[in-house]
Structure formats: structure tokens, C-alpha cells
Write a structure and sequence with these properties.
By secondary structure, the chain is an all-beta fold. It contains no helices and 7 strands.
Length: 105
């Protein structure tokens, strides 16, 4: 399993952002996005699945949308955050990548 072109758009964002990535799987994948402060505190975990992987060799996924709130529903302060995107096949193979995002609220 390979992922690449991991990004969130728009970035920076005010109201919401979508997490995008390319993958090489024809299976539906479990997706997890963990958002951290720059000091390493986990503030939000988003879980989902890719739409249909289909028969495409390299597929674009943008199935996870985030509104800038933490796990308790509170808006996060403006600033820079890190996120770790992890995808996993039903068989347990996984790939992950860490990137930055900026909130402008």
C-alpha cells in the first residue's frame, strides 16, 4: 500500500478543510487523521473510509472533511497544527504520512 500527494485543502483554512491523498489500492481503505498541536498534544481524531477504490491503479481520495474543532466540539485556536494521515487495508497493511495545516479563525 502506497500513499502520496498527502495534503489538506484549503490550507490555510477558516471554516473547513478536506484531507486529500493518492493511493494505489483497489480496496476500500480505513482512513484515520489525527490532529496534533505543535507541542504534540492530540486534539482530534477523524475516522472514515475511502469511497470505492475501484479498479484504478492510483486513486484520489478526499473523503475526510474537518471543521477545525477538537474532540469535545470546541473550536481550535488559530495557528499551525500537525496531522498524521493513516490508511489501512482490510488485511492490515497500512501507510501513513505527517503534514502541517494552518487554521486562520
Amino acid at each position: 500500500l502506497v500513499i502520496n500527494n498527502v495534503l489538506n485543502y484549503p490550507n490555510p483554512f477558516v471554516n473547513y478543510t478536506e484531507f486529500w491523498f493518492n493511493h494505489n489500492s483497489s480496496e476500500q481503505l480505513d482512513v484515520s487523521v489525527q490532529i496534533f498541536t505543535v507541542s504534540g498534544k492530540l486534539v482530534r481524531t477523524l475516522n472514515g473510509k475511502t469511497s470505492n477504490g475501484g479498479k484504478i491503479v492510483s486513486s484520489l481520495s478526499r473523503d475526510i472533511v474537518w471543521d477545525g474543532r477538537d474532540d469535545f466540539g470546541d473550536e481550535l485556536a488559530r495557528g499551525t497544527y500537525l496531522y498524521r494521515l493513516r490508511v489501512q487495508t482490510p488485511e492490515g497493511a497500512y501507510a501513513e504520512q505527517t503534514e502541517k495545516l494552518v487554521i486562520l479563525k
